[in-house]
Amino acid sequence: MAGTVHIIDVTNRDGVQTAHLGLAKIEKTMINLYLNDMGVYQSECGFPTTRHETNYLNANVDLAEMGVLSPMILSGWVRAIESDVEVAFELTTLRHLNLSISTSDQMIKGKFGGRKKRSDIIDMATGGLDKAKELGALTLGINAEDASRTRMPFLVEFAKQCMDHGADRIRYCDTLGYDDPFTIHDRVKQLASETGMAVEVHCHNDLGMAVACSIAGARAAIDAGVDAYINTCVNGMGERAGNADLLAVVLAIKKSAGFSDTYRLDERVDLSKSWRLAKYASYAFGVPIPINQVGVGSNAFAHSSGIHADGVLKDRRNYELYDYEELGRGDPEIVETGSRIVVGEYSGIKGFRNVYERLEVRFKNEAEARDVLELVRFANVLKQKPLAVDELKFIAKYPEQVRKLLSVSP
Asked: What is each CA distance from 130 to 24, 86, 154, in whole angstroms?
């Protein structure tokens, strides 16, 4: 139904491209599980033409078919060229793709070195879409990289041609964070109005406006009568200054003055899962959550000023726009300070079974326990840091899928 905002999270595609950082395949899978639990519409979970992603992507599709990663859609990112599409279908079982190509004069000149014209860009994109349809793609997005610096007449023509060749929506990429909320609203509204095509906004934070631009772009799409899709990353991870933060986007849609009563967020989104997801992503990336991070920072609900403290004690709503309980916060966090057994890459069976007994996980027999122990050891080797409780439980519950996740060979 037109008028709904859907979230497409790109942590496992764009977020993992953050310089100096990355995620192990089991960590990417856990992010997908948390996103699905939160009710996110779609996860752009990786690169189906990148061979070290093959087993991870296929294992996640297995989990989706088992109902573990459902109903969230799993999609992959490829270049908008036929050969990439062919490799994606050869290596993986993903059937939802986003095809990407640069559309601005700057990038056509700067990346293609003058070897391509605008007409070539359209031909490459439509050729890739045709090939994806031929091979059995279920949904297709077309990405206009650097859309914010692309001439509007060409962007509209590009979108129309791609729609005629099977694209379900166009991704308007503010690749350099160049737009402001006013320019992106005007441009997206014109794009949606002239094409009738659903618009997906992908905003970077180079000027600190990724969240504001994302919701302004989504509002424009809905104002033009089409559905809107917003790309997010957990904790705002992403290249350079990052991408639009998932929680901040959701809160802006649900709580801001101009949005909450007029524009609908996908009803599956469950805010109460956001605290757990943010904490896991912080651990997995090895990046602490800033104290002033929206919703999940340690100061998000902290009050020091006398006037503020007095006001919030009388009525929370004086100085808190929303309740911390809505985000899944408020439960005490237990920190072990005594003797502990930690499962690592050199763990033995007794210590391993002690840890799993405390997690109330039981094994059918010794052979099953030793099999899971081997998987836990390998997971520790790949991650090079202790496994989280949810990771330990996941390995015990889905050992065959984990075996794929841990298998990478050149």
From this structure: 33, 11, 20
